[in-house]
Specification:
The protein has 253 residues and is mostly helical. The protein has 11 helices and 2 strands; from the N terminus they run H-H-H-H-H-H-H-H-H-E-E-H-H. Strands 1-2 form a two-stranded antiparallel ribbon.
Amino acid sequence: MTQERNSFFSSIPTITKNLIIINFIVWLAMMILPERTGINFEQYGALHFFTSPDFNPAQIITYMFMHSTFDFSHILFNMFGLFMFGSLLERVLGPKRFLFYYISCGIGAALIQEGVFAIRYIDATAQIPSDVLSRIAIEGAQAIHNGKNFIDPFLANLNSIINVPTVGASGAIFGILLAFGMIFPNMPMYIMFIPIPVKAKWMVLGYGILELSFGLTGINDSVAHFAHLGGMVFGFLLIYYWKRKGIINGTYL
């Protein structure tokens, strides 16, 4: 049994395996350490809107290694996707290029999410003086730290834009999914509740359309749909560039 277990772990490519390990270590630290140290990991490492008093530039990277501690499925599905699609993609791209791709898609997802928040923020605050906005941001951040929000719906929505953080590797995972669909476009995939195989390129396209529609309509608003799309957009640009340069030679299936 030990040999089989070692064989399974050794079969996972290095970067994919280490990314999974790091994500689970950070998740466990977020579960255990706050009560013992008083450190709020999300305050410092999760992605905040740039006008939030809790924002710092490092969050554009650190947020993608953090996951919800209230929903195990968040990290479970992300790491399962990384294992399923990242393992094969790393073998095609090589460890260094795969890591660069993963981090780039995660950063791209953060930038797109910040851009969408900026549009909503500008639209909501067009008539509000800057000193009032600063007070709302500071008081709102304190409310979020205490697990609360403003009672007024407008202020609550504005505070959610400014101070509710974004966490998760989903943007990078959606970038990996996009790359898989571009490099292995005709590989048959089985999707839950669909009894027939679907080509990878159509599965990826379907996911992209769903994320766009969810983002525009506000369905499941607690999910950063535009971050998912951002990971796919940056992933497309990178894969397209590498194909044009001959770094990736055509498709594999």
